[in-house]
Amino acid sequence: MSVQRILAIFEKDIKDFPKNMALLMLPVSNALLALIYSLTFDGELPIKLLYVIIGATLSMVTSGIMMSMIAEENEKNTMRGLIQSPASLLDIIIGKSLVTGIITVISLMISLMIVGIEPFLNFRAIIGLILLFLFFLLLGIGIGLFSKSLAATSGYLMPVMFLFGFTPMIATFQFAEDSMIVRVTNTFPIMQAIELYQKSFWLPLCIIAIWIIGAALFTYVCFRKVMTDD
Amino acid sequence: MACFTIDEQVINGESLPLFSLTVNDSQVTSVYSDADVQAKLVKILRSNTSIPVLDLQEGLYMRLSVEDNIAFFKKWFECKMPLPQILVEFELHTCAKKALDKCSESEIRRVYFAKYYISGYKKMAFLEPIHGVDVITVNTFINMLQKIKHLKIPVLILVSGMEHAVLLGDSVYKLQQNGLQEVEVDEMATLQPEMESSREPVVANLFKISARVGDKIILFDPTEIDYIESQDGKTMIIINEESFAMEYTLAEVDKKLEVFGFYRCHRSYIVNLQKVREIITWSKNTYSLRISNKVQSTIPLSRSKIQDIQEKLILK
Asked: Which residues pair with B228 in a beta bridge?
């Protein structure tokens, strides 16, 4: 691992980001979504809806940008010649994660400013957000590594968005309170973050941690696969 | 001395003729073969050796500018050379701010060259490096080969055209199904004595003037030439703004070109009388000749020659 290489990738991708319309549209459309929600609801938004906006931001911006950036390097064959060891692939991933992190923070701030940031200015909410960010980031890296083209990533992004980003919406589908779907989706990271925010602390924290470990394992498998393929 | 060898072990039963070729760092080796054999050679290099085959196929960051691309590669490969120097040496300073997807193919090729140069490989194999690019780019590549030679990096160049093989390689080989043959290269060193000895008889029917550019000899029609000038003891042919050094002294050239209507108008100038547009008379009896070329150059005319030239041009 080399700090200089991480910085090189970071600088390159920061410069590239404003020039890449496909990526630029993700945070923009996300801010629009927040704007629409804040306009349609009068007064304070329910906490579940706030978490829908957070889920949308994290899935679209964090996972979306991360997987697109890695998949584009894959597709355009720009990584060839740069990667001579697993360490240099790790450098690329860390550099890109930094870029994604910064864009996520900015995008999340804008979205939350629009709908009202006050409920999130406490320790529990911030811990929840950081853990969710890690989960979505790892998911994005993993998908980015195994998808061969940019077009494929937008396909993969859809299920990620609906399953993990818009989980609180599923609760509004009027399923029975104890039905299988509701019980399963209640263990999803966003739902657990709501739990963490509203009720208990340790149990949801552990469940989210398990999700992160799962995502990390998935990413590791993809990473190994890419390295052995070359 | 750094070198690498391609031999029976490397070829290892592939459908290539068996040969052994050692590429060392003192000579750029070029191998010229048809596309079929070339593809097989590339395949064995890729699978059986660690020699990087630089084939210009990997992507660059097309949305970013030339400068940003080079800056990234420079940081990534931890190259110590300053960025402006890289840009200038690869003739990229004029398009530094241009996004790569707006650049011409030749400019992009020079970005590839710069990338390969700063990537710090210890050995290199280029595949068709100068196919379909302009003269500046070819020159840039030749300069780069010189620098690589200084860095003691062995270089192999695979091309499918004989002229590229001879232009780029110090030792040239031809690879065919029946084996590898070394091609004799007509080096300047061997050519020169020959010219020396055959100079006298050639004079009578000489109709081309030769000049040297790097390793190449360029032949000019006498009628193309605007004038010939002696600069710091070197004889230069001037055609528009361009000048080409030639082998002979001014006196020798004068003798040869007289029959083509050239005239020694000054101690260090010979002019093509066909191209004289104007005789300018300055004060104090000094004269100049204006040439009818793009840049309208003026060259001095000796006072003692004014009579003579006027006679020649039938002005009197």
From this structure: B237, B270
